[in-house]
Amino acid sequence: MSDAATSASSQVAKPVRFPATDGYSLGGFLWSGNGCADTPRPVVIITSATSVRCRYYGRFAAYLHAHGYDVLTYDYRGIGESRPARMRGFNADWADWGEKDFEGALRFAADRFGDRPTHIVAHSIGGFALGLAPSARRIRRVVSVGAQYAYWRDYALRERLLMLWKWHIVMPILTRIFGYFPAKRLGWMEDTPAGIATDWSRMGARFEETIRPGRMINGRTEATLLRERFLQVTAAILAVSLSDDPHGTVGAVNRLLAYFTSANRLHLHVRPKDIGHDSIGHFAFFHDRFRDTLWPLALYWLRHGKVPDGLSKSLIDLNRR
């Protein structure tokens, strides 16, 4: 796609606001229109990594829009366009991001676009959040990138000690001092609500043993109800892991995929050298230097529900296990 096409597509992005399921106002951007009126465009919702602003995904959203999709990006509560006036003491956890915020995005898309096919591009914790949404059964296809929920034993061995120091020692200490995690001052990511930082820093092998432990709803643990929501997801999922991603390792990605037992799950492991690059890491998939390599892969899956033939040797089919 030419730079001119990208620029034209970017110009149609408009700020939007819509409510989460509890009424909290969420902000984001919508790329919509310019398609044939007789052929309704499918919808893609991009759901972000932890404390990464939705603006980061703007060029990728514009690329998808230029190739025939209406695209919604949004910020979870506490982040970017959805940041409150005061962070200290602001209450939000990872479950809120999934069952309230992502669910709100799904409902907004349904209200705006009706029964058009709805697909998801999920980065990092976004791949976890989608499993918590009560209406996730509406989702047709998913591309996830480095999707996991930050269990420390899944971190890449070469960087595990540094990551333990940052995310499981420094983060909870500063969160207790400030009432939120002041990550922006450290240049690590966006400032982050205390509940999110707490979920991350104490996460165990089974997320339901960490998030909202002990809470009961109608005689059942809330954790059990959250886990069961993953069974509603019947989408075709392509989970992409990158060999130099210290967060989204093969083990971490497969740990999350194990919850989606009703879905058609394929795991594609990509090495940077396979596409002529030295590095990709946890974030760069969405950088436009991969417009001609990784982005067409995501587009192909969204269009066809399969990967190009040349990549089939790198697939791990979790449905046969």
Task: Give your account of this protein's structure.
The protein has 321 residues and is α/β, with parallel strands linked by helices. It has a single domain, classed as Rossmann fold (3-Layer(aba) Sandwich), CATH 3.40.50.1820. It has ten helices and 13 strands. The strands form three sheets. It has a nine-stranded mixed beta sheet with strand order 1-2-4-3-5-6-11-12-13, with helices on both faces. It has a two-stranded antiparallel ribbon with strand order 7-8. A two-stranded antiparallel sheet has the order 9-10. Strand 3 (43-47), helix 2 and strand 4 form a beta-alpha-beta unit. The model is unreliable at 1-10 (pLDDT under 50).
Features:
single chain; two-stranded antiparallel sheet; alpha/beta; Rossmann fold
Q: Class in CATH? A: Alpha Beta
Average pLDDT works out at: 92
* Proportion in helices: 25-40%
Compute the CA-based radius of gyration. 19 Å
Question: Brief overview, please?
Answer:
The protein is of the alpha/beta class and 321 residues long. Helices cover 31% and strands 19% of the residues. Strands 1-2-4-3-5-6-11-12-13 form a nine-stranded mixed sheet, sandwiched between helices. A two-stranded antiparallel sheet has the order 7-8. Strands 9-10 form a two-stranded antiparallel sheet.
